[in-house]
Amino acid sequence: MPNLPERREQIRRAHARLIHMVVAACQNPVERKTLEPHLQTAANNGWNELVQVLRRILSGQRDVALLEGLDEEDRVITESVLSGLQDAHSLPPLDQGADPSLAAPGIASVIYAARQGDTQALVWLGQMASQMERAGGDMARIGAALGPLSRGQEDFTRLARGMSTSARQLLQGILDELAKLRPQ
């Protein structure tokens, strides 16, 4: 699978608020009241494994065994919390969200790797599609397009059905990036 060094940072930025809240709650039990509704919402949205691990961290566990069995996104979030507990300077900035301009190239490179038979890329696409489906709306529609894209289907009109303008732009960006990756 292609090495995407910015992917980890994208995940950290996208979940910066949660990471900061968990670190704050570990350092000050009064903050747990603020964190609890966020954990409950995450669990209700299918992030059960992550919430269980975060609760273990809140109860004082800090060892690397926490990372076992986590998917990439949950692992990056957990590692960020653990690092933040050791060094607050390692926490992701709260004022920067995920950079959407990096989404299309990153997703396209994983799709391309999956097309080449990279099983790790196929697994990652499946996990990402599942998470996007749980998010609903346009994210679910983009997630639903990942399977057909990994099988070489690139009919924009068919794939973009029901998507908003911004989701259509992301889809077009993915298709453009896939075109760049194809050997000439």
Concise structural overview:
68% of the residues lie in helices and 0% in strands. The protein has 184 residues and is an all-alpha fold.
What does this structure look like?
Helices cover 68% and strands 0% of the residues. With 184 residues, the protein is mostly helical. The protein has 2 domains: 5-90, no CATH class; 100-181, no CATH class. Helix 7 packs antiparallel against helix 8. Mean pLDDT is 86; it is low at 1-5.
Query: What portion of residues belong to β-strands?
Result: under 5%
Arithmetic mean of pLDDT: 86
Q: What's the number of helices? A: 10
* Helix content, binned percent: 55-70%
Broad structural category: mainly alpha
**Largest sheet descriptor:** none
Question: What is the element layout, followed by pairings?
Answer:
Elements: H1 5-14, H2 16-27, H3 32-44, H4 48-58, H5 72-86, H6 103-115, H7 119-135, H8 137-150, H9 156-159, H10 165-181
